[in-house]
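Re: weekly structure request thread

Next one in the queue (486 aa):
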Amino acid sequence: MVREARSRHPKQSLLNNRMLHVDRSCSKRRRLTQQRCHTSSDQDAWDFTGTPYVPVYVKLPLGIINMECELVDPNGLRKQLETLKSVDVDGVMVDTWWGIVEANNPQQYNWKGYKQLFSIVRELGLRLQVVMSFHEARDDDVRIPLPKWIRKIGLENDNIFFTDGDGSVNTECLTWGIDEEPVLRGRTAVEVYFEYMQSFQDEFSEFFNTRSISRIQIGLGARGELRYPSNHVKNGWKYPGIGEFQCYDECLRKCLAKAAEAIGIPKWGSPPDGAGSYNDEPEDTDFFCKCGDYNRPYGRFFLNWYSQYLIDHGDRVLAKAKLAFGDTPISVKLSGIYWWYETNSHAAELTAGYYNSVTRDGYAPIASMLKKHEAALNLTCVDLSTVDEQKDFLEAKVDPEGLVCQVLNAAWDAGIPVAGENALPCYDSEEDDKILEHVKPRNVPAFMRLSAFTYDRLNQDLLEEDNLKEFQLFVKRMHGEDEEDL
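Done, posted below.
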C-alpha cells in the first residue's frame, strides 16, 4: 500500500472483537457483524495477559545492503538488533533484492552481504523472515532498481514492463505477460524467479536446516505485493486516486485479445475506454461510476480476465517457490487498498487487480489460490482506523477496517494463516491497540487470530527511549505476557 506518512488522530472508540461475517443479501453494501466481548472495565479489555503468543518481527530498513551486496554498517546494525532482542522481538524481516543479487549478469548471484547479515541475526538468537524481492525499491534516500541486464533488455524491448493507457512504461517490476515467454536472454520470467529462489535455497541451506529462517515471502508484483502497479507515484498518482489499468504492453494486450476471441466476441479484446486517469474519482468516469460499465457484460468480462491474470501469475510463481523451498512456510503480501471501498465499484481495488465490488468478493479467489500452495496471506493496514482515515479524506469513502475484515474472512474460509503489517509508523498505545484488536480478537476460535505481526520498519525513531518502551509493552501484549513485569 502506498501512502505518505502523516500524524494520526486520537481514536474515538476501540472495538474488542472482530467483524465475523459478510452479509451480501439483497445486493446491499457489504455489512460486517461485530461482537464485543463483555469485560468489567476498559482496563481489563486491553489487558492481554495470558492470551495466545503471537510472534513479532521487525522489518529491516532499505539500504543496509548496498548495490555491491555489502553490509553497510555491521557494527551499527548489530547494536540495533541487540536493542530489538532486548525487548523480546522474535525476529526480523529482510528483503533480498533481485536488483542487487543478480545485478550484472544472468545467473550470476552475489549473496555476500546477506550471508554476513544473516549470521549476525542468528548469533543474536533472532529468526528470519526473508522476502524474495523481484521489484524496484525507492524511498527518499535509497533506490534499488531491477538488475542492469534486465534494464538493458528493457531498453530494446519495453514490452517486458507494465504499460498504462498513455503508453507510460513502469519499470518497477516485470509484466506478467512474459511469465512464460523466453524473452529474458532465453529464459521466461518464471524461470528467472525460480532460479533465483533455488540459488537462495542452495546458498543458505544451513539456515533452513536449523529453522533460523521461519518463512519466505514471495514478491509477486509492485512493492512486492500481489497486485498490478496501478497507483505508482512515478506515473503521477496521488492518494486517493483510483489508479489506472496496467495491461497495455504488447504481451497482455495479445492475451486479452485471445481471451475475447475465445468467447466469440473479438471486439472485447481491448482495455476499457472511459476508465479515467490516475487521480480521478469513480464518479468522474464512465467505467467506475455508480451505474458504470464495470458492471455490464463487457466490464465483467474484462475484470474477470484482468483479475484472473493476477491470480494465474501468483499460481505460477508459487508453484516454483514450493519446489525451491520445500516444506519451509511461504507467504504472499496483499495490498490494503481501502480508499473508495465504500463505493459500488471499489475502483482503486479493480485497477490493482482485485475484482472486488459491491456484488462480488474479490479476495476469496485469491485466498483459494494461496491455499492450493499452502501459502499464508500477509496483509497491510491492520493498524488503521476507519474513523481516523475518514477525518482526513472523507470524500474518498475509505474503510480500512471493513477491508481488513473482508480479507480476513476470505482467508479463514480458505483455511490459510494470516499475518499482518502496519501501514504507518506506530509509536503510541492507541495505535498499538488497533493492531492488537485485529491480531488478537477476543472470544473467537484460534484460527481467527493472526499468526504473526511485522512492524514496518526499524529506524531511529523506533529506538528512541519513549518509543522503544512503548514498543516493548506492545511486544509483551503480543506475547500474552504480564505487562506489570515491564
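The first helix runs from residue 42 to 45. The radius of gyration is 22 Å.
Next request, please.
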